[in-house]
Amino acid sequence: MFDNLQDRLNTVFKKFKGQGRLDENNIQEGLREVRLALLEADVNFKVVKEFISRVKDRCLGQDVLKSLTPGQQVVKIVHEEMIGLLGGETADLELRGNPAVIMMVGLQGSGKTTTSSKLALHLRRLKFKPLLVPADVYRPAAIEQLTTLGKQLDVPVFASSTDMNPVDIASQAREYAREQGCNVMLLDTAGRLHIDETLMDELAAIKAEVSPQEILFVADAMTGQDAVTVAASFDERLDVSGVVLTKMDGDARGGAALSIKHVTGKPIKFVGMGEKASDLEVFHPDRAASRILG
Ligand code: GDP
Hints:
The chain is of the alpha/beta class. Helix content is 54%, strand content 13%. A seven-stranded mixed sheet has the order 2-3-1-4-5-6-7, with helices on both faces. Helix 11 (255-264) links the parallel strand 5 (242-246) and strand 6 (268-272). The longest helix is centred in the N-terminal third of the chain and has 17 residues, at 24-40. It binds guanosine-5'-diphosphate (GDP). GTP binds at residues 106-113, 188-192, 246-249.
């Protein structure tokens, strides 16, 4: 992840830093290479355009050109703008209510079920008492998968069955969570291979029933700009509260991570770094920017 982008940007930055003086031409030329590197990493072209324009405006400010270390100033500006692109501050979960409800949404195969169990483990480490709730009644294997994951982690799983309606599952599970003293419930909803209206209607009905504090859109980082487009559709319909980017341990180029906040306005809250329950990390924009910039 980010390896190619990191290599490309390092080359550009070395050139910048190696120059004692910078003029408008050097800066334009260097930023052209930054632009190409971002486009090759599959970052949304509008995002790239605005990013480069912001960086250029700041770099051409008199202070940078006149400073003793203009190259380092340019690198610092790119770093700061990159943090902004990745979301600025670390975005925490907002968990209130008894129980707090977290609804996981996204396409089939994006990693919803795996991420639900990873989040249960994460929340338990933070001293919450989670309940896992399978609400994908269309794939019997999905209920089984979450039940097995819950058993492995020793986290209670609501006993959903395929003949139940997902809205009823959500409301009955909430009652069950209260009875069992679970203060947060993770609702693993159904996905489809493509966005479809029936799915969106169902998700909207679940949202209306249990008013989740968090609706996390789970996206496979390997799908690049498709993940961003799908995120925008889910957000338009459901007003999601954040994004989880999965499969960041793979060789995704980074385009989804660098575009999704800017396009949807919603922060990346977690990243999936593998298939195991412990492979979930809170997303820190400043650390991610430092990794990209080497
Ligand atoms: P769902 O259909 O959205 O519930 O997706 P699943 O949770 O079943 O995940 C689909 C596949 O992606 C499974 O094989 C998971 O093990 C895998 N997966 C999920 N998250 C990650 C991740 O962060 N890294 C890797 N390498 N694989 C993941």
